[in-house]
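Section 5.1 Outputs to date
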Amino acid sequence: MKRKVISVLLALSMVVSLTACGGGSNAGGSTGGSGDSGTADNGGAAADSGTATEGSSGGSNSLTVWTWDPNFNIYAIEKAAEIYAQDHEGFTVEVSEVSFTDIETRITTAISAGDLSTLPDIFLMQDNSFQKYATNYPDVFVPLNDKGIDFSQFSEAKVAYSTLNGTNYGIPFDNGTVINAMRTDYLEQAGFTLDDFTDITWSEYIEKGKVVLEKTGYPMMTGTTGSTDMTMMMLQSCGASLFNEDGSVNIAENEQLRKIIDIYIEMVDAGIMQEVTDWNQYIGSLNNGTCVSAVNGCWIMASITPAEDQSGKWGITNLPKLEGVENASNYSNNGGSSWAISSNCQNVDLAVDFMNATFAGSNAFYDDIIAKGALATWKPAGESEAYNQPVEFFGGDAIYAKIVDFAAKTPSNVTGAFYYDARDAVGVALSNIIQQGADIDTELKGAQDTVEFNMGG
């Protein structure tokens, strides 16, 4: 699966929960809330964030939806309903706030009970989980190949996350194009500019990072102990994966992964990468000015911008690339999700038309949700003037257009049904290597054995 990922970006005036599109298990609170926020009147889009509505609406002009995060995904689906209702009088959506883990649990429960009638018309799935559930429970998803959705308007990589054996099961929504957000004032103290960290290799990054550390006293970046976010971002930047194209596990003999671990160890030993114990400490290091940069999905900007005193002191560039690795690039992705239409939907034509007119066809929709930090993957959205506006917080740079360009250059990675099993196993191995000095060969072999066992191999 050769993929490229396109991202349409977040407006920085709003603070957005990391639950929206965080890529790693280290994102605290990522299961979303379950509070009852009552019913909202949004141009025909009714939202019930209390007990989740079960089943299809069954109505001729109404749809039920499960998703999470009121400020991000729920806002987006309600705005889409509002726009759709302008040309479809009386159209409504009934939105229930359900965390992504609960959505997955409820799908599994419905399958186990042999009763899919509890499923809504539309639900959101994390991209990295999509193929697992489409593989294990194909009867839950409506195939979308012949429904009139122009998937060529989305990046090939984004579409691939929700495609199985040539069949499309998802409508792409948000993702997390990787950025290197840097404190330009700290770089200046060390005699560098943002350009000095643009289109560079990891070796160059480390050498310059040592100078920055010496001059400022701050590490280049922080990361949570045992997290594989950085590892996976670096791996995807060269089009590599923890799996081969045939689905077999590729950990123990993965040369790119070994090179990445060597770089990670070098950065930790040099003090350029400082590991912290949890997500709150990671975000704290950005907000209190005790690290120089953040390499992460572009959604991390929503956690940087609350530090208003740092406005104008940040800039955005791409991440370093691996040396001596075929297909290596300065671009990657971390996070994302896609919409699915459930087989319980009683009005598939309405659900498809709703999605086609909004998430797969409305510049007005994407121009609006950027103000809520909603990340999108529909290519034409990037042509809007909204994405070419300067952002004061990031030095007056037109960062939205910049990130669209990054996203278009992002290589593919292979996920598959056991993506999280492999990711977790590598996380354990990496933690043992860094914290205990464990042997790399032994740890990677153990990680491969764990994943193969989980796969039943």
